[in-house]
Amino acid sequence: MEHGLASLIVDMPDAKLQAVARHWMTLHYAGGGIPRLRAVDALQLGQALSDIWILDLHDDGMPRVHLAGETLADWFGRCLKGLRLSEIYNADMLPLILNMVRQVSETPAILLQQAHSLPTNRSFTVPFHRLALPLCDDAGAIRHVLGISVFSSRAGHGQGPVRTSIERERLYPLRVTAAERAASTERAAAMVA
Question: Most buried in the list 50, 55, 104, 115, measured by CB within 10 Å?
Answer without folding.
Answer: 104
